[in-house]
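Please decode residue identities from the backbone states below.
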């Protein structure tokens, strides 16, 4: 783990400082249990700014829980999580777990966008209003600014011609593209996609994956992608993490993971997709 450190890099010089990048997300020794069920076991994970990381692995292996911790939708049992150098969950040396205060959490959450399996659009609002809502209410942008941003995002996901319709009038794929626009409009530094296509009819999966690929290609945002679409993971991710039973069993660049899986568990898992 490379942490930018003003003091230590100063003496060594500028060259090192350029390569020493602070991770945008840092999980450190994270464990999570629900009662007796241990769902995550001592997870260490750094995500670099702009890095695209895909989580693959069997159902129930803890992938969603890892993402939900980052959104503070769940509380870790132990460990520390930082986003952009800001503490989200922090475990003190005495073992006590401390959560960031509300003001701080608000700021950290603003750096994270999340797209779920189910789109959760507001049914009584037009598409445009769905996307404008958070920039207006959370960022406090003027109506004009929020609208401009929202329209730009809706264009980006190919829905410029749907801004005045209501969610019920859209296909599942289109709804999911609205959900993506709604997250992107906040300009997060990290986007989490939790099985964004698994609730869709098969013929609608492609259009959503294409939109995500296009966003990934722009490069700036880090992404945490939970997916069962192996071809998609291979195309989009810089790094694949294979999860099983709450542990990262194996990780590496897509080519290595898919062409030369080392562990038997990963080999077995991948054989199901062939
Ligand atoms: P994945 O995303 O890999 O399918 P999850 O993180 O959703 O895995 O779930 C991991 C395990 O945690 C599963 O066994 C699931 O049933 C359990 N689990 C998830 N959320 C809860 C909860 N709120 N209460 C109890 N058990 C849970």
């Amino acid at each position: 783990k490379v942490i930018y450190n003003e003091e230590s890099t100063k003496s060594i010089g500028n060259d090192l400082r350029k390569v020493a990048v602070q991770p945008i997300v840092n999980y450190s020794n994270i464990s999570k249990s629900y009662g007796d069920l241990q769902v995550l076991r001592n997870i260490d994970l750094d995500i670099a700014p702009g890095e695209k990381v895909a989580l693959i692995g069997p159902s129930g292996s803890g992938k969603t829980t890892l993402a939900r911790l980052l959104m503070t939708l769940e509380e870790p049992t132990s460990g520390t999580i930082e986003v952009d150098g800001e503490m989200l969950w922090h475990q003190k040396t005495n073992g006590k777990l401390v959560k960031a205060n509300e003001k701080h959490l608000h700021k950290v959450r603003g750096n994270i966008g999340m797209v779920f399996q189910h789109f959760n659009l507001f049914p009584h609002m037009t598409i445009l209003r769905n996307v404008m809502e958070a920039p207006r209410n959370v960022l406090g942008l003027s109506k004009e600014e929020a609208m401009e941003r929202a329209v730009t995002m809706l264009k980006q996901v190919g829905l410029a011609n749907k801004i005045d319709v209501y969610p019920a009038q859209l296909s599942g794929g289109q709804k999911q593209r609205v959900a993506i626009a709604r997250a992107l409009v906040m300009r997060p530094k990290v986007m989490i996609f939790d099985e964004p296509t698994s609730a869709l009819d098969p013929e609608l999966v492609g259009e959503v994956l294409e939109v995500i690929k296009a966003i990934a290609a722009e490069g700036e945002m880090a992404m945490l992608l939970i997916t069962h679409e192996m071809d998609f993971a291979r195309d989009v991710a810089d790094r694949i993490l294979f999860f099983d039973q709450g542990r990262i069993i194996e990780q590496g660049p897509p080519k290595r993971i898919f062409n030369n899986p080392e562990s038997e568990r990963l080999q077995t898992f991948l054989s199901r997709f062939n």
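Observation: Confidence is low (pLDDT under 50) at residues 1-18.
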